[in-house]
Amino acid sequence: MWEYTKTVKDHFLNPRNVGVIEDADGVGEVGSLACGDALTLYFKLDDHKRIKNVKFQTFGCASAIASSSALTEMIKGLTLEEAQKITNDDIAQFLGGLPKQKMHCSVMGRDALEKAISNYRGEAEKKVEGEIVCECFGVTDIEIERAVRENHLKSIEDVTNFVKAGGGCESCHDKIQKIIDAALGRETKAKKKVLRLTNIQKIKLIEETLEREIKPALKKDGGNIELVDVDGNHVLVKLQGTCAACSAAEITLKNYVESKLRELVAPELLVEEVQS
Amino acid sequence: MKVIYLDNNATTRVAPEVLEEMLPYFSEFYGNPSSMHTFGGTVEHKITEARERLSGLLGASPEEIIFTSCGTESDNTAIRAAILSNPDKKHIITSRVEHPAIKNLFEYLSKNGYRVTFVPVNRKGLLDLDYLYKNLSEDTAVVSLMWANNESGVIFPIEEIGKILKEKGIVFHTDAVQAVGKIPIDLKNVDVDMLSLSGHKLHGPKGVGALYVRKGTKYSPFLIGGHQEKGRRGGTENAASIIGLGKASDLAAHHLLAENVRVKRLRDRLETEILNRVPNAIINGDKEHRLPNTTSIAFEYVEGESILLMMDEYGICASSGSACTSGSLEPSHVLRAMGVPFTAAHGSVRFSLSIYNTEEEIDFIIEKLPPIIERLRELSPFWKKAL
């Protein structure tokens, strides 16, 4: 049994603004019968270009109906610019939260709104951008990437809950994982850049990373590493043990030590070896 | 609010007579049936009685019954026993519409060295027998087919299939969890080697099941442990529940004919009235070869979860084959295997009755359901377009 909030139940049992606007300024249609849910959104603007009237029709489960109803309440009286800023998360929050497996219902609301606004502005129906990843539900890499980024999704299951991709035959799971990995990689770097480290913090973090991550790995092969100095973004190290004599030392330094430090400390670091 | 329970293929109410019979065996007669003393022996006698009662319902001998913890354990035990006693055979057969206990087990085995044939069904949910027979081979270790389907209620011709498999010497298991207690079963006249059942589907308690293993069938235990169940299933007996299952079997045998006629009449009235009052409603599954208590009705252009939640407001309990109720995004694999179109699969609702349902309850549903469908169709963008 799904745990729906009181607000979800209320909007499901007493949906607001159900219907059709015959002379609508903008109409947005998303979903299909095959998918199991679909929404058509209509809006009409007043003289000040604010949303005066809004109606919807939804085929779907309780949370799909409630998300649609909530969206119509949220956008009434807004300008299109204001309405456009509404995210799927805003819709979910308006409802007091949605079960994770039902988040795609709020995404559907946002998508319908976006389409209705494009329709009003006379923008040609946006061509399917990107490449279809999930054939079962017709979801593109761009849509998946956006959901991952905006909602900080970490697993394929999350992606399925939000945009349905991967919920059918599951043959696209590898592709979805790659998109998540890429998006998460970018996200960690972006965060790290914001975190400006002082020199002392940076040196400490480098030391810690060497001790905790890098040395144990090198020791497995009978090697070791010693930190000599940190000059700006230049990390000066000395390789020891088998590493010192290893013909692949250069590769170890660049591919392993440097990439590890870039990942865990700062992306601009350069590792150099000092000869004894 | 009064609960109107039409979800008896999910689970059933423990019959009051069953509960009464079980209660003393929790705190009064709590002895271990394996003990030497008379106190434990009393419980053992009662378990023996339960075994006789269940074998009576099935037309089996008491020593052919092994008590387990649930239908899933019975299924796992049966399939494992069959493949372990045929170590050279690497092909197994089942249908596309099995309960997850068999479906997921066979999918697991398909990744672990077994070639699996999933026999399709037609639009009415009837098994493609030609396909089944064509795929039998020297390499086939076991065929497992459900006696009756939990979603559509469709009954497979187990007797006929059993004859063919016996001729070929292939082990035949049936998951009869939905069939036992609802339709007559006489294993003296049906060639199945193993049969699974579950207590809570026939007004017994949850947490107890049984596996029938025909005398002479090669067997190896799934739960290895003590000498309980003659070494065929280790673990101290769930005495009270086994006793409950025994009593439930007795009641089922008693109700099987008269009560099921009444249940079937209720089901048929519910089905007919709803079809009369609601346009674009379709029965999923063959009406002739079907359990007397089950109907699966597809309401086009609306979604099942919404129907269930609106009925829930009136205390009406049913279930749905829609994607949204299962936690996955695909509608039920059973309806999909039957080729039910998406328009209908998402809006399918299953009503499963029991002997406890009344005429008044059916009247109530007939009154409340049509406006719910109408209301949801008003909300649906596809409804007007479909007209």
Mean pLDDT of chain B: 95
Number of helices of chain A: 11
Q: In angstroms, what is the radius of gyration of chain A?
A: 26 Å
In oligomeric terms, what are we looking at? heterodimer
- Which secondary-structure class do the elements of chain A indicate? alpha+beta
User: Largest sheet of chain A, if any?
Assistant: 3 strands, antiparallel
CATH fold title of the largest domain in chain B: Aspartate Aminotransferase, domain 2
What percent of the residues of chain A sit in helical stretches (DSSP H or I)? 40-55%
Give the % helix of chain B. Answer: 40-55%
Just give the CATH class of the largest domain in chain B. Alpha Beta
Proper CATH architecture of the largest domain in chain B: 3-Layer(aba) Sandwich
How many alpha or pi helices of chain B?
15
Task: Summarize the largest interface: chains and residue counts.
Answer: A-B, 30 and 26 residues
Instruction: Write the CATH homologous superfamily of the largest domain in chain B.
Output: Type I PLP-dependent aspartate aminotransferase-like (Major domain)
Q: What would you call the shape of chain A?
A: elongated
> What global shape of chain B is seen?
globular
**What structural class do you assign from the helix and strand content of chain B?**
alpha/beta
Number of domains of chain B: 2
Distance from first to last alpha carbon of chain A? 68 Å
Strand content of chain B: 5-15%
SSE topology string of chain A = HEEEHHHHEEHHHHEEHHE
